[in-house]
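User: Reviewer 2 asked us to show a designed sequence for the structure in our supplementary figure. I'm pasting the structure tokens here. Could you produce the per-position amino acids so we can include them in the response letter?
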């Protein structure tokens, strides 16, 4: 563990992470070239970017619990890169949806008639705010408010989970898996008290 902690402090560790986080995009390009996108390539691409972005979002919020569990404080320096890559893949998800699936004249009606699109759009707007303010200048100007603002990532996680679940039609296996992962990460971050509080309010 000590050796890992030493390696994480090196600049090369960030460069390695940068390359690793590009691999999902490179894999998709490979699948496209080798005609491995299935019978509905547009749907495959849109859903692929969504899954990659959500997985990276969950990895991002797991950094702090992982630090508490292992004591590797140097891992915190990777959160910004992870968060920006989340936004990168979200942009690819939204962009591919607009390019390949959406009917431009019906975008507004889709936002109103399809709740999962509305929730996803709100999550996208909130994530855009976090991405724009992820720089050191914003941290300095916002002061303590920066931390409060960026704790909104946990609301974004819940919105994305709802966005994901509402798109399911028959098989809810992946939705259940994601729900369990989110619960574990929230308990690791905030403790079990928030669950008791939430369900107490819902009674």
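Assistant: Here is a per-position design you can include in the supplement:
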């Amino acid at each position: 563990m000590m050796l890992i902690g030493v390696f994480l402090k090196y600049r090369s560790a960030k460069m390695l992470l940068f390359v690793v986080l590009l691999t999902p995009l490179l894999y998709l390009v490979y699948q496209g070239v080798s005609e491995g996108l299935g019978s509905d390539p547009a749907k495959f691409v849109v859903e692929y970017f969504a899954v990659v972005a959500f997985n990276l979002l969950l990895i991002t919020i797991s950094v702090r619990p992982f630090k508490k569990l292992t004591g590797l404080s140097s891992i915190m320096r990777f959160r910004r890169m992870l968060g920006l890559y989340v936004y990168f893949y979200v942009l690819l998800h939204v962009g591919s949806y607009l390019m390949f699936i959406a009917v431009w004249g019906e975008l507004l009606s889709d936002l109103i008639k399809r709740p999962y699109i509305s929730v996803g759009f709100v999550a996208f707007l909130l994530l855009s705010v976090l991405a724009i303010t992820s720089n050191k200048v914003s941290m300095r100007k916002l002061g303590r408010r920066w931390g409060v603002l960026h704790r909104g990532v946990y609301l974004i996680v819940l919105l994305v989970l709802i966005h994901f679940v509402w798109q399911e039609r028959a098989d809810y296996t992946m939705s259940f898996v994601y729900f369990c992962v989110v619960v574990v990460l929230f308990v690791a971050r905030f403790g079990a008290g928030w669950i008791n509080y939430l369900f107490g309010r819902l009674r």
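For the response letter, you might also mention the following. Residues 1-7 have pLDDT under 50 and may be disordered. Residues 136 and 142 are 10 Å apart (CA to CA).
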